[in-house]
Design goal:
By secondary structure, the protein is α+β, with helices and mostly antiparallel strands. It is 32% helix and 17% strand. α1 runs antiparallel to α2, α3 packs across α5 and α3 runs parallel beside α8. The two termini are 22 Å apart.
Length: 237
């Protein structure tokens, strides 16, 4: 099994977490920065077009957790881990992990706007999928490839995202400003097969148990009407 690149996590943390029993690994990680879920208000501005399937591309740290969260959201028909923000030639995990390619680990979310709006997708993203106040990092992962960024696919998405960030900052939803970037999607490149469905396939893997399972639990707690117990998996397509 591939481990996250050591530029995102220290080699010592990885080795310790993998060698210790899960409970000990959880204790050992106590000093690591944790992404804390926040209850945030729904966006005041939201989409009105509900005629066809739509795509949202979101970056919020390691794609394992972001994918895992949205695979458990009703109305989402697909969530694929991948790379956005850089070119196709360098969209490979080991290269992206150097932090020099311009890519961000991202998730392409296909959803039915008749069942869930783009604004609600963003509300989940900002509340449980990641911490939008962390600059070029998430939890124990550091580097521009772990940045918070919304890659928009339409002008409407750009307007909604910008208005929502302004709303969250204006209401002081967090103790620090939102640092999430907004920019048009210029290409999305699916990640390697071993990265897909990682949370579902490896729920006891120390990184997942410590950092990502709590996000899915927060999703169920904060959005009970939108939570689906059976995730929509890439492998099932």
């Amino acid at each position: 099994m591939m481990m996250k690149h050591e530029s995102g996590k220290t080699r010592s943390w990885l080795l310790a977490a993998l060698l210790l029993p899960l409970g000990a690994g959880l204790w050992f990680s106590a000093s690591q920065a944790q992404e804390v879920p926040h209850r945030v208000p729904a966006p005041a501005m939201d989409q009105t077009d509900k005629s066809a399937s739509q795509i949202a591309v979101l970056a919020g740290g390691c794609f394992w957790g972001v994918q895992g969260v949205f695979q458990h959201v009703k109305g989402v028909t697909s969530a694929v881990s991948g790379y956005a923000g850089g070119d196709k030639q360098h969209a490979q995990y080991e290269i992206v992990s150097t932090g020099t390619t311009g890519h961000a680990e991202s998730v392409r979310i296909t959803f039915d706007p008749a069942k869930i709006s783009y604004g609600t997708i963003l509300q989940i993203y900002f509340s449980v999928a990641h911490d939008p106040t962390e600059l070029n990092r998430q939890g124990p992962d550091t580097g521009t490839q772990y940045r918070s960024q919304i890659f928009t696919t339409t002008p409407d998405q750009a307007r909604i995202a910008a208005a929502y960030i302004k709303q969250l900052d204006g209401s002081h939803a967090y103790s620090a400003p939102v640092v999430t970037r907004i920019g048009p999607l210029n290409g999305f490149y699916p990640a390697e097969a071993y990265h897909q469905d990682f949370l579902t396939l490896h729920p006891t893997y120390p990184y997942i148990a410590i950092n990502d399972i709590p996000k899915v639990e927060a999703l169920q707690q904060f959005f009970p009407d939108l939570y689906r117990a059976d995730p929509v998996l890439v492998a099932a397509k």
